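#onboarding

Welcome to the new folks! Below is a worked example of what a typical request in this channel looks like: someone posts a single protein sequence, and someone else replies with the predicted structure as tokens. Don't worry about understanding the tokens yet, we'll cover that in week two.

Example request:
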Amino acid sequence: MSIRAVLLITLIVLGQAGWCPLARAVLPDEMLSNPLLEARARTISQDLRCLVCQNQSIDDSNAPLARDLRVLVRERLKAGDSDEAVVAYVTARYGDFARLNPPFQANTWLLWLGPLAVVLVGGGGTVWWLRSRAGAGALGAASQSLSAEEQSRLAEVLGRKG
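Example response:
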């Protein structure tokens, strides 16, 4: 099978996967009868982290704790809480870790700025390494320049062959 055929098949499969609807873990018995409240609950649930899975929202997770949190979100909305109040309630119980996008504050600055620091340090190290290699190459070339006697001898050798 040629590389083109493999690439074509890969693109077709990935394209088809993009059209598939995402499966959600929300069960029918959890859903609210009011479509506006349900839409708010889904939006909130997509921003809260499953504390068991840790890389999924509670909207995507099948874990029992995620189900409990989805039910809790819906109960708070039915009680009349605003979206911010529901998130604040969950955050008060489980900490900022329960949010997929924690706020920028004193205890999360490393989380937000750490990747930037790694990129800057890595980029600076790469620039330093490249400059040191370029400097060593120029130094090596300078130390290998020929003296006048060596140049005349080289010309003589090359003149005989050419």
